[in-house]
């Protein structure tokens, strides 16, 4: 009886461990280059970055200066900063998401930008809004301090800015990826 109970506990522990770390693992597993069908059906605004296997819904109009507000939004996807544009408006779109989080707070979308630092000049980023595809190409990357918020506050013209924390697992600095529409 004890032997069977021990085996059962080991199996349950491994299943829990696999479930907990699946969001990280799926980012490195082979995938198709098209966005997940479930995102297309359940959300009218989402992001797809094929190179890093990032696919997540985009939560609109999130206050980037209120931790209570943006933390809740980031559990469900990538946040669009309040006051920034939407695709097709000809202004700066500012999206931000976690690169990591503690295991007990991870969700399927909470680590959408885990591999954002791997993007290189020329890589593609796709936004989908109400069935329309918007394609962007990476043109620059920068690391800035958390108090350098001018990129968030000032419209930089027709571009996409993605932000996450860096180095991975810390909130020391911010990684900004700049992309232009193609």
Task: Give an account of the 3D structure.
The protein is of the alpha+beta class and 182 residues long. It has one domain (2-181): Sortase, Chain: A. Helices cover 24% and strands 31% of the residues. The chain has helices spanning 2-26, 37-42, 67-74, 150-153, and strands spanning 45-49, 54-62, 78-81, 93-96, 124-129, 132-144, 160-166, 173-181. Strand 7 and strand 8 form a beta hairpin. It is elongated and about 70 Å long. It holds the Pfam family Sortase. GO terms for molecular function: hydrolase activity.
Topology:
Layout: H1 2-26, H2 37-42, E1 45-49, E2 54-62, H3 67-74, E3 78-81, E4 93-96, E5 124-129, E6 132-144, H4 150-153, E7 160-166, E8 173-181
Pfam family, one: Sortase
Organism: Candidatus Daviesbacteria bacterium GW2011_GWA2_40_9
GO molecular function, one term: hydrolase activity
Rg from Cα: 18 Å
Terminal residue distance? 64 Å
Mean pLDDT equals: 85
Question: Architecture, CATH level 2?
Answer: Beta Barrel
How would you write the strand order of the largest sheet?
A: 1-2-3-4-7-8-6-5
| Largest β sheet strand count, sense and barrel closure | 8 strands, mixed, barrel
The number of domains: 1
CATH superfamily: Sortase
Helix content: 10-25%
User: Would you tell me the structural class of the helices and strands?
Assistant: alpha+beta
Looking at the chains present, what oligomeric state does this protein adopt?
Answer: single chain
Low-confidence runs of at least 5 consecutive residues:
33-41
Number of helices: 4
The percentage of residues in β strands lies in 25-35%
